[in-house]
Amino acid sequence: xxxxxxxxxxxxxxxxxxxxxxAKLADEGIALVITDVMMEQAExxxxxxxxxxxxxxxxxxxxxxxxxxEELFKKIVDKFGTVDYLVNNAGITRDNLAIRMSETDWDxxxxxxxxxxxxxxxxxAKIMMKKRSGSIVNISxxxxxxxxxxxxxxxxxxxxxxxxxxxxxxxxxxxxITVNAITPGFIITEMTDKLPEEVKDGYLKQIPLKRxxxxxxxxxxxxxxxxxxxxxxxxxxxxxxxxxxx
Length: 246
Known about the structure:
There is one protein chain. By secondary structure, the chain is an alpha/beta fold. It has one domain: 3-Layer(aba) Sandwich (Rossmann fold). It has helices at residues 16-27, 39-50, 66-80, 103-131, 143-146, 152-172, 190-193, 197-206, 215-225, and strands at residues 7-11, 31-36, 56-60, 85-88, 134-139, 177-184, 237-240. The protein has a 7-stranded parallel beta sheet, with helices on both faces. The radius of gyration is 17 Å and the shape is globular. 44% of the residues are buried. The model has no long low-confidence stretch (mean pLDDT 95).
């Protein structure tokens, strides 16, 4: 018998960590929904992943907008019929010292990073509950565990993602749905590559493994958490930071 097709939704998947997560899941034969506000790049990513032999769909959505998120998942169900996995990866930073941070920058980061994760999980859970199976993985950050100077908004949003993860795990576990979080540390991406060398060296000195992480390191953790090997793991926060947080 042909194995039932699985469908994953990865938010903020046009580039960076989200793209690597989607690529890893495509390698596993999972159909991918690439959602991002950068539609042109999302379509490019979807096209690349389709070459791996899986179905892909690129959709534009602002995850902080409840109506857009609801419409997003309606389109996904119309195309694929279901959602098996959700990876809440979409996120932004608007750094500044707390005493100088604008209300706009506070609200924007909390809306996308935390509210966006909630809205997408809410819609995905409604689909997963009907079939009593599914997996949600929320991408948090070590900033949500440690706090980071200049990132009161970002750290608060990522700490909130951890609390959201644990709450959803309790609410959805009885329906066979697992909900876990990953806290990446210093990951080498386009964004971190632009940091001054002294800043990067400062991070590396704090990491026992003496290297920055890669987007693939995060993708591997996501792939594990949605796999049958992790079927008895829920409400857990997996720290992928090379020992930055112990």
